[in-house]
Amino acid sequence: MCAARVIKVSFLPMKGFLGTGATFGADLNLVVQIIMGAALIVGALLAKQKRYRAHGICQTTVLLLNLLMIGLVMGPSFQQQVKPELSRVFHKWYYEAAAIHAILGITAELLGLYIVTVAGTDVLPQRLRFRNWKWWMRTELALWVIVLLSGVGTYCAWYVAPFR
Amino acid sequence: MVCGAIPVALGPAKKMRGKVKMLELTMYGLVGLAAMLVIAFYFACCDEFPSVRENSSLHLTDLTVQSDRGQAKVSRG
């Protein structure tokens, strides 16, 4: 009974709406991630126009929303489908794509949280704070775009390629 | 002629302000849409997510006490 519940939770067995083999949760996550990626790019343009308050609100909200999506969709999915098999079958593309995406994603999320903490609060001591704002934020945006692309790649490896 | 010069001077600034305003609106729209989707997803699928802990540790402790009492009875008997 417990195993059945775990499988039910990990796959969220509602049919997706993008016409692939994905679940509803995976499809919605993909759409939300693309929207959030677009919002981040618009947020970066706002920083270029010196609208720093709007820029901060945008990037922080996206970061927190992404944290929610990690907790609701990607984390449980990785925990149930990838982690138990990771040591045995890492060479398979199905697991490899998800593992690479997870490593890059966690790095981007943690880096984002660090940047938001430095930019928005005085919690961190002076020696842990950076001054080169542009470099850090551009690095984060570039990493986020790479993570988004690797996420689309994972989606294809999981839900598009096996159903062809 | 002076009046004619004013719109020429203000034009680019006004255009820039409009562009920034549009960027801001786009950003709030995208973030709002993403937030609504995440919230809708959570409410649609909240039954599917596991609760943090199905049995509270307090309840488990109660069970342990009960089973200990049972064992005590058995040993007495």
Query: Can you give the mean pLDDT of chain B?
Result: 69
CA radius of gyration of chain B is: 33 Å
What coarse outline of chain A follows from CA principal-axis ratios?
Answer: globular
What's the helix-strand series of chain A? HHHHH
The ordered H/E elements of chain B are HH
> Structural class of the helices, strands and pairings of chain B?
mainly alpha
Our measurement of the CA-to-CA distance between the termini of chain A, rounded to an integer number of angstroms, reads: 33 Å
**Class derived from helix and strand content of chain A:** mainly alpha
Verbal overview:
The complex is a heterodimer of chains A (164) and B (77). By secondary structure, chain A is mainly α. Chain A has one domain. Chain A is globular and about 50 Å long. By secondary structure, chain B is mostly helical. At the A-B interface, helix 1, helix 2 and helix 3 of A face helix 1 of B.
Quick structural gist:
The complex is a heterodimer of chains A (about 160) and B (about 80). Chain A has helices at about 1-10, 25-50, 50-80, 95-120, 135-160.
Labels describing this entry:
heterodimer; A: mainly alpha; 5 helices; disordered N terminus; B: 77 residues; mainly alpha
What secondary-structure arrangement, pairings included, does this model have?
The complex is a heterodimer of chains A (164) and B (77).
Chain A: H1 2-11, H2 24-48, H3 52-81, H4 93-120, H5 133-160
Chain B: H1 2-45, H2 57-76
